[in-house]
Amino acid sequence: MSFKWISFIAARYIFRPQKKSPSPVLSILGIGTGVFALIVILAVMNGFQLGFIESILEISSYHLRVGSLPAEKIDEARSQLLTVNGIEAAVPFCEFQGLVRGKRGGQQTALIRGLPPNATELDPAMARRLEFEEAYFNLEDGQSALLGAELARRLGVRTGDEITMFSIPSIFSAADNDENESGGLRSFTVTGIFRTGFYECDTTWIFIHIDSAAFFSETGPVLGIKLKNRYHDRQALELARKTLGEIPGFEKSVFSSWRDYNRSFFGALRTEKLFMFILVGLIFIVVGLNIYQAQRRAVLEHREEIGLLRAIGGGQQAVRWIFVCDGAIIGLSGASAGLVLGLLVSSNISSFFTFIENIVNSVIYIVNHIAGFFEAGGIGDFYFFSPAVFYIKEIPSRIIPSEAVIIFLFGFLSALLAAWFASRKVSRIHPAEVLRYE
After folding, report:
1. What pLDDT digit, counting tens, does each position of 282-329 carry?
2. Which domain does 279 fall in, by range?
3. What's the structural domain count of the chain?
4. Strand pairing of 87-102 and 107-115?
5. Is residue 248 within 8 Å of residue 378, measured between CB atoms?
């Protein structure tokens, strides 16, 4: 039997189903809903997770770190590492924990990082992640400080205000040098307030001049390295170690990758995404079982036609392929519709949620209006992600093409496999028995 003949009969069963059989449209809607839901959910989850991960890697931990470098040779080390294939940027910095106090009495522990004044030129990726609410990146003066937006709010300071900063090493250093007039305390002027979108950075981070940071920290400078592709960190790490290892004075350099920092946090995000993928993917199992039952019923309802097709020369495998083609049509139609709709909504996720919120709030308005006649309490407005609860300005979304393709294949293959297993009953139908009393 030719494929054209098989596809003709299969399309006839799809578009002209028996009255007793469940409509194939329901199966198509089930597959489409599963693909749509999984694409949208993973796109939003990717938006949140990759936003956090990129904020950490581009601002906090860098892709690679090289420590235990001689302070006087930090520029030489940077120049040598920039020659390594795959390394895009290298920035010297030092960081420490300290206590910061605002002029109005607010105080909090903070993570203070010393950076060179041209850090944004050395590391354009960091500059893109920093959104300044007040002023701009300015560390030209040794007394300048850049604060996270939430930290500035807690300290009660704005651009131009002064903050006082100290750390435990700075107190002992001041005592050893008889600098009792300051007692290890130093004042800085707030020259900018930034926001990264990552709550931990915005509530605890301060940037100061790298030379000023040397007063507070006893540890030497560290080189933060950015790669063209952060997933090639292991290869770049070996090349960087080999490059510096051949130069006298860098034998004790310590190398580390971004995988060594925040390992538990990244692992938790990966596990969360995996389980969400599995839970939402259960939709395909449910829909696949429904397709399996529908196809089995279709085989039984078409026993006479199957017997007739077998009698006029249709082989067992050819007739079986008719029902497999039914499953393929259902899976392809549902998965394609879900994929297109999922990509469309994911690309305009903020507008989609705003549309849903407007519908819900319209219903709430009507309910409140009706409740007003009975002097009942009203219901507040509905928001999926209220700014009062969630630390976001808009709902992020990030579509990963490989994941979209996998989801599409899941939807298509679940219908195809269900139809394949259901069509096995065709082999049990014998033309002579079916047509004996016809």
Report:
1. 877 887 887 787 777 777 766 666 666 666 666 667 777 877 888 888
2. 3-52+266-435
3. 2
4. antiparallel
5. no
